[in-house]
Amino acid sequence: MSKVYGGATPSSTHKRADARRNEQALLDAAAAVFVTRGVDAPVRDIAARAGVGMGTIYRHFPTRADLVVAVYRHQVEALAGTAPRLLASMENPTAALGQWMDQFVDFLVTKHGLASALRSDDSGFAALHAYFLDRLVPACASLLKAAVQADDIRRDIDALTLMHAAGNLCIGVETGADTGYDAHRMVGLLISGMR
Amino acid sequence: MSKVYGGATPSSTHKRADARRNEQALLDAAAAVFVTRGVDAPVRDIAARAGVGMGTIYRHFPTRADLVVAVYRHQVEALAGTAPRLLASMENPTAALGQWMDQFVDFLVTKHGLASALRSDDSGFAALHAYFLDRLVPACASLLKAAVQADDIRRDIDALTLMHAAGNLCIGVETGADTGYDAHRMVGLLISGMR
DNA sequence: CAATATACGGAGCGATGTTCCGGTTGGGCA
DNA sequence: TGCCCAACCGGAACATCGCTCCGTATATTG
């Protein structure tokens, strides 16, 4: 059931040289714009920044989600890959889970509007949601399972629910100035409540 | 510092009869549209439903937040008013807090997109955010304070933070079909984690 | 150096938020 | 009652944004 998300890198199948160039330019431009304007920055801005036309951006990334996924793929994969390592290197699975969640929160909080986009019901973001779930839920699940088995974490909460909640808790942090709200702490509280 | 939010009811200061009529029509129309299309339904739809022009809606409710606040004012006030009663009628303040939070969650979950709108950084929703905070944070704070004093709730979390987190946990529930996600349970977990 | 498949660019359409101003009307007042 | 003007109304108009479509340009291949 899990889709294959590989092969979208510019250097993949042999397209025309200009196509590869433009795809890379778009990735760079998007990454830059996402930082300042958030993941739902105007498409035109990204195209302009990359020095390409509207058609080009939609040809390479039919959905906004495709672009976002391409930009953050490496970080997401890295996050997914961290889970087994964390599990192996720590004696306490619950602590490993907590640490992984912290990394997850870090990731979301540093991407303007990403958390919001993930929960958005905008059809254009559906694939984004799917990708994140496909990659991160299994990673989270392995940690959660270990924590449940070895420790005193309640077993009636699945990884999907946990990630949904944690993701939600990260919303509104990127935005605006310092309100005393700390997503890390809230997620920590949530996990504490799961014992 | 807390603003006065009264006097926006159609029957308030003596405007012209048609103005009152239109304001009421807009409130009714908005309430109806919010149920089906959510709080960020197209302004035109609301105006059309009320049988008025674009100008009229913006004259009566300059900001979308004004309209939303007007529509939900009664329920918000009721929710705020529940806090003292709950505190008086229950022996356990922590249970009272939990019950009040449940009502808060109920309120948010039954309003499509309200939770999302509350966390939105859209400038048009800033006043909405402010109103909810002004009304509900003190109510929550009274319960929280009692729970802290009488029970074993940690004291390093203020009402604002708690409501922010709880509000976030309600996001994405209104949307779409039944994903096993249950905002009530998540908020319950969060409160459990606060001991 | 053609010929062709491939890719590009941006005008254009529809939806939406918001403003602005000429026309309309309620209701106080003579 | 009838007049008159301040208050109010309506919706055209402008701006922004997502997305599509097609005539044009060019990389590649033989």
Structural class designation of chain A? mainly alpha
Radius of gyration of chain A, Cα only, in angstroms? 18 Å
How would you characterize the largest beta sheet of chain A? none
Greatest chain-chain contact: A-B, 29 and 30 residues
The span between the termini of chain A is 32 Å
Oligomeric state: homodimer
Could you please describe the fold and organization of this structure?
- The structure is a homodimer of 195-residue chains.
- The model of chain A has no long low-confidence stretch (mean pLDDT 91).
- Chain A has helices at 17-37, 43-50, 54-60, 64-89, 93-109, 114-119, 126-150, 159-169, 183-192.
- Chain A starts with 16 loop residues before the first helix and ends with a helix.
- Chain A is elongated and about 55 Å long.
- Chain A has 9 helices and no strands.
- By secondary structure, chain A is mostly helical.
- The A-B interface holds A 116, 119, 121, 157-158, 160-161, 164-165, 168-172, 175-176, 179-182, 185-186, 188-194 and B 116, 119-121, 157-158, 160-161, 164-165, 168-172, 175-176, 179-182, 185-186, 188-194.
- The structure holds a DNA duplex (30 and 30 nucleotides).
Helix and strand layout, with pairings?
The structure is a homodimer of 195-residue chains.
Chain A: H1 17-37, H2 43-50, H3 54-60, H4 64-89, H5 93-109, H6 114-119, H7 126-150, H8 159-169, H9 183-192
Helix pairs in contact in A: 1-2, 1-4, 4-5, 4-7, 5-7, 5-9
The structure holds a DNA duplex (30 and 30 nucleotides).
